[in-house]
Write a structure and sequence with these properties.
disordered C terminus, mainly alpha, transmembrane, 2 domains, single chain
Length: 355
């Protein structure tokens, strides 16, 4: 059973890895269009009324739609490559079509996840149980598996899980909408930021990031803003600490700190892992606090990140980017201060006493 759930996790992460480029490409193109519209004083560049405006406004309106087209492939790609991970190429069609249907039924991210798993395991079971004479065996992967795998997947989606998952997705959206205002937004930012800082690219971190990305397609950006701020903070914080207090760290960790600083700027949280593993009992709480506080500052001061990019190259596309950067800076300084004043074992001379 443990192995089964490990495989499920692997299949889901495969889907996520293929989905991310589509999400980023679509969201960045839309971000460029919206920044361009702002130069003309247009804050709703997606509105079809701008197609007949003067200047470059129609171009930015079209560009926003093209970005939305790429973003719209997010769920079908996610579902398709979960299925692919389970049952290889014969499952791709069923996974993609199931994901597209999940999108059309309004089941959102959860429905696409379900459709990918359903498609993959249906095709997997069929592939392992359909036995034809050798002369006809070539028909199985190119006809029987894609056709009947797709048929069974869409029927299950349409008539069994579509309605309940759509209701669940709508409930999640409504809950997130209520959490996106006032003090609730602050709580949401604290929770998402803390999850990101807890295991630095592990399952809890990934759960927060994937959920935040999925909500982008629903027009909910608070979770994404909190997540993208938090991703940067630990790696940047440890990099700052090694620059400020070099004597606190061994030569190896000083070198790791340089890499960590750069990884922070480009949005890779795993750069903080070497520092956290030296003294996890102290550093995990520091990471959580730094990420939670930094995310809360950015969100509470009105920063809105509509794209799933945490690196420095996306900062200027963030609404109210100065306070967004302020949240990153404050959170990073908390981690740096925690490493310097609370951390033990970073110097090899101290390492034996760590616990």
């Amino acid at each position: 059973m443990k192995e089964f759930f490990q495989n499920i996790k692997r299949h889901i992460l495969t889907g996520v890895s293929y989905m991310i480029p589509f999400t980023i490409a679509g969201a960045v193109i839309m971000g460029i269009a919206r920044v361009g519209g702002m130069f003309y004083g247009v804050t709703d560049i997606w509105d079809s009324a701008h197609k007949t405006a003067q200047g470059l406004i129609p171009f930015f309106n079209t560009l926003d739609g093209l970005g939305g087209l790429a973003l719209g492939l997010m769920l079908p790609v996610f579902s398709g490559f979960i299925a692919y991970s389970i049952a290889d190429r014969p499952a791709l069609v069923a996974g993609f079509v199931g994901g597209l249907l999940a999108n059309n039924l309004g089941t959102g991210f959860l429905g696409a996840l379900a459709s990918g798993l359903i498609a993959g395991y249906i095709v997997y079971i069929m592939a392992n149980n359909i036995k034809l004479p050798e002369s006809a065996s070539s028909v199985v992967p190119v006809f029987i598996l894609p056709v009947f795998g797709t048929l069974f997947t869409v029927l299950i989606m349409q008539y069994v899980i579509g309605g309940p998952f759509a209701a669940l997705n709508n409930g999640l959206i409504n809950w997130m909408s209520t959490m996106s205002t006032g003090s609730s937004a602050l709580v949401l930012a604290l929770v998402v930021g803390g999850m990101i800082g807890f295991d630095l690219g592990g399952p809890i971190n990934k759960a927060a990031v994937v959920t935040a990305m999925a909500l982008i397609s629903e027009g909910l950006f608070i979770a994404n803003t909190a997540a993208q701020v938090a991703i940067i903070i630990p790696t940047l914080g440890y990099g700052i600490a090694t620059l400020v207090k070099k004597t606190k760290f061994s030569e190896e960790l000083r070198e790791a700190g340089k890499a960590s600083f750069i990884m922070g700027l480009v949005g890779i949280s795993e750069g903080a892992i070497p520092f956290t593993l030296v003294n996890p009992m102290r550093m995990i709480p520091v990471n959580i606090i730094g990420c939670a506080v930094g995310s809360a500052i950015a969100v509470s001061l009105g920063a809105v990140n509509t794209i799933p990019i945490s690196g420095i190259y996306g900062w200027l596309l963030v609404e109210k980017w100065p306070v967004y950067v302020l949240g990153i800076l404050v959170g990073s300084l908390i981690v740096a201060a925690g490493a310097i004043f609370l951390g033990k074992g970073f110097d090899t001379d101290e390492f034996d006493g760590v616990m």
